[in-house]
Amino acid sequence: MQTHLEIIIDDGNLCGEGPFWDDRSQALYWTDITGHRFFRYDWRRQRRDVLSDSFEVAGFCPQEKGGFLVTNHHGIWLWEPGANPLVLATQAEGQECVMNDCAADPLGRVYSGSWHLDEQGSSAPSFLFRIDADVSVHSADEGICFSNGLAFSPDESTLSTFADTVARCIYAYDWRRVLTRIDRSEGVPDGLAVDEDGFVWCAHWFGGCLTRYDPDGKRERRIELPAAQTSSLCFGGPDLDEIYVTSAARSNSLMLAPEGYDPTQRLIGGALYRLRTGIRGLRKYRSNLSRAALEQVATPNSSHPKEP
Hints:
Layout: E1 4-10, E2 16-22, E3 27-32, E4 37-42, E5 47-52, E6 59-62, E7 68-72, E8 75-79, E9 86-89, E10 91-92, E11 95-96, E12 99-104, E13 110-114, E14 126-131, E15 137-144, E16 147-151, E17 161-164, E18 169-172, E19 177-181, E20 188-194, E21 200-205, E22 209-213, E23 219-224, E24 230-236, E25 242-247, E26 271-276, H1 291-297, E27 299-300
Antiparallel strand pairs: 1-26, 2-3, 3-4, 4-5, 6-7, 7-8, 8-9, 9-27, 10-11, 12-13, 13-14, 14-15, 16-17, 17-18, 18-19, 20-21, 21-22, 22-23, 24-25, 25-26
């Protein structure tokens, strides 16, 4: 199948991640986790703005009433560009909130997973957490190695797919089952998206591609990209028929790479790509945490010397 691929922005993102299409403002948000930069691309004006260059954003959800729910390696936060971030939680149910990706569900609750991976490739048990409207944080699942992309199905049921990078699995819910496994030769599963037909799209870190799976886990297509470290994707554009893909210019987790992988011998990444396949995606949900609860539990950030 032919696709039209283009580079929208090339800022040399060290770890571009988490693209989110905002249908209200017709804008795309994404983050450079390692570079501590947070971006907005105005679709109408074709203009990119840097909203922050001093706060780590690993995962984020636009809040229903403004600002963002942010997850990062230090915890869970409430943040508005131009203001200091407010920490909501650093621990939950006795577990450290070393967080990665996040996604809001149809009720405005937020799911986010933790990760604990060392340089030898060993991973301590990690958790999938749920942040409720009252800002309480609960363990929703455990026995995870390295939490990554999350997405919901067209019927708006509970969390439908969830990637575990170290286990090389994409899980499917309501109960956790293996939807598909990724062979090491194709990299590891990273960000996820679901289209209007309920097919799951996955970005392959180290694999330089996107793959699409039907609801039973059968691969329907593979789309090659120039960047080896394709990290995440989302559907966007006025008709949700454009696919935006982030990538990363700095290698990490090389112990998980395919055998013989050499990041010096090919383009790794760093650009934001856009492609069209004729397939429409689903709108992502916003978080809807209670303002009253936020005012009661939030405290000023004191753990980062540089503020947005």
